[in-house]
Amino acid sequence: MKHLLLKPALIAAFMGLAAPALAADCYADYKAKQDNPLRLHYGVIELSGDCQKGAAKAEIRDRIAPQGWTLLNVISVFGPEGLEQRKPDAGSYYLRF
Questions:
Q1: What contacts 44, CB < 8 A, 6 or more positions away?
Q2: What is the pLDDT of residues 62-96, one digit of tens each?
Q3: In the record, which residues are listed under signal peptide (predicted)?
Q4: Is the pLDDT of residue 29 over 70?
Q5: Are 82 and 27 in contact (CB under 8 A)?
Q6: How far apart are alpha carbons 2 and 72 in whole angstroms?
Q7: How far apart are CA 20 and CA 93, in angstroms?
Q8: Sheet holding 27-34, edge to edge
Q9: pLDDT band at 11, cuts 50/70/90?
Q10: Which of 8, 23, 62, 87 could cross-link 47 (Cys pair, CB 3.0–4.6 Å)?
Q11: pTM flag (> 0.70)
């Protein structure tokens, strides 16, 4: 009888580990541009989706595009421990989008 209860618990535990990490205090820093005239910016953004660089690219691109910005690259994905060191460089693009 115990093995019948243990199996679902093990499956649930495994599924929790296998699921992609969702953003929980997850941030990314990125570079973006606008054309005519050329403008560049470095920004820091809080992610709401997967806390992975690939997923961050799509999320950032979709969030900055309505303001006329084109994503150039995602530099890194990090937790709250990396926020303060990036704040001075991001300036007005710190958590803007």
A1: 27, 28, 29, 30, 83, 86, 87, 90, 93, 94, 95
A2: 999 999 999 999 999 999 999 999 999 999 999 99
A3: 1-23
A4: yes
A5: yes
A6: 55
A7: 28
A8: 39-46, 27-34, 70-78
A9: very low
A10: 23
A11: yes
